[in-house]
TrEMBL record:
Signal peptide range in chain numbering: 1-19
Protein name per the record: Por secretion system C-terminal sorting domain-containing protein
Source organism of this protein record: Chryseobacterium oleae
One Pfam family per UniProt: Por_Secre_tail
Residue ranges annotated for the Secretion system C-terminal sorting domain, each copy included: 306-384
Keyword field: Signal
Organismal lineage: Bacteria, Pseudomonadati, Bacteroidota, Flavobacteriia, Flavobacteriales
Family matches, as InterPro entries: Secre_tail (IPR026444)
Keyword Transit peptide (UniProt): no
Length: 388
């Protein structure tokens, strides 16, 4: 039963009222147990379903990274890409991939949201057995550093899934323990800490939303979970099984029991029901957004863009095409702690600029590229990931 699945950088101008292809869910069938139905796009504004990307009934084409070829999977086992027990999902926007794990399996799957091709990452690091509820992977999210993180029910394994080139690697970062102040609100107890989902913030911390509605902040460097509080405003016995950040910086939560989606303010933990009226069975949520993230600023102030966002040669291209922008603009690059690590003045002529900028000696990691006009007015923010 799913009941056991148990700001410096916040500049937001508003959410897009239309469903976007950046908020996803594992949806289930209308049953009392966990039965995977499909991966689907969700409208994070009103909590309703959009396009179905891949279903339990689809023909799966699975490529094994280890065996370097396509493989046939045993559909009668828990170890396949369309297993009934799905509860962990993350979205990798840099590669337009959905990353997920069956709950009773150590296998990691990478679904290309566009081509529908699936890569199997054989995972020998994770210790998962179907009969051990503590070991089940039920929480997953993209980290601000570009890696994917997954966590089991008991917090005894925090996994980091990294990509270098076309290859994925898995590392066990260790055991998450209770903060001494947690008391009866234990992160490692079934009734208070198991299941649910997790999100990341712009400082690469994690927030775990347990099935019981408790919220814990996890600082990965310390490997400790501190009880933050309990979500208020939910119906009695609401099971929190999915969580993801929307474009407004709020957390959207969903239930496997078939209930409305709610928007939660991370500061107050107050929940507000989303207006769609749909009550889907949701086992997990994923999005491209992060809590307390300056990069969630809607870039509607000017016709500016930068590319690529995944930088492997230390160059980015700045493109401006806006007659309202004249003279000089200032490019600033901030690291995830908010430190300004680079400044450069650029000259716009006739409302147009197309220039390559060298990122000097920036080390691997996540950064925010900020562009202002001469008066200091913000025109543009975008997250980039510098890799080797």
């Amino acid at each position: 039963m799913k009941k056991h699945l148990f700001p410096l950088f916040l500049l937001v101008l508003g959410a897009n009222a239309q469903a976007q292809q950046d908020f996803f869910a594992i949806a289930g069938k209308d049953t009392s147990s966990i039965v995977f139905s499909d991966f689907r796009v969700m409208d994070a504004t009103n909590g309703t379903s959009g396009d179905k990307l891949f279903s339990a009934d689809a023909v799966a084409k699975v490529f094994s990274q280890e065996r370097k070829g396509n493989v046939s999977e045993d559909k009668n086992s828990y170890n396949h890409s369309q297993a009934t027990t799905m509860a962990a999902l993350a979205y990798d926007p840099m590669n337009n991939n959905l990353v997920y794990m069956p709950m009773f399996s150590s296998n990691i799957y990478i679904l290309n949201a566009k081509t529908k091709e699936i890569t199997l990452v054989d995972n020998t690091v994770t210790k998962v057995t179907s009969c051990d509820i503590n070991s089940h992977i039920t929480r997953m999210t993209a980290g601000y550093d570009g890696n994917i993180y997954a966590l089991n029910n008991a917090g005894s394994q925090l996994l980091q899934i990294s990509r270098k080139g076309s290859q994925y690697t898995v590392n066990d970062l260790g055991i998450i323990k209770d903060d001494a102040a947690n008391g009866k609100n234990s992160f490692t107890a079934i009734e208070t800490g198991f299941g649910g989902d997790m999100i990341a913030d712009a400082e690469n911390n994690f927030y775990v939303f347990s099935a019981s509605g408790n919220v814990f902040k996890v600082v990965a460097k310390e490997l400790k979970a501190k009880f933050v509080g309990k979500i208020s405003g939910l119906p009695e016995n609401y099971s929190v099984n999915g969580s993801a950040v929307n474009a407004s910086g709020k957390v959207v939560i969903a239930s496997a029991k078939g209930d409305s989606l709610y928007e939660v303010d991370l500061t107050t933990l107050q929940a507000k029901v989303l207006p769609g009226g749909e009550k889907p069975h949701i086992y997990d949520l994923a999005s491209k957004y992060f809590a307390n993230d300056r990069a969630t600023l809607v870039n509607a102030l000017a016709n500016i863009d930068i590319y690529p966002t995944k930088v492997d040669e230390h160059y980015i291209n700045i493109n401006v095409n806006d007659q309202k922008i004249k003279g000089n603009i200032l490019l600033n690059v901030f690291d995830i702690s908010g430190k300004n690590v680079m400044k450069q003045k650029l000259s716009v002529k006739g409302g147009s600029l197309n220039q390559q900028v060298y990122l000097k000696s920036l080390v691997n990691g996540a950064y925010i590229v900020n562009i202002t006009d001469e008066s200091g007015k913000a025109l543009f923010n975008k997250k980039i990931l510098v890799t080797e």
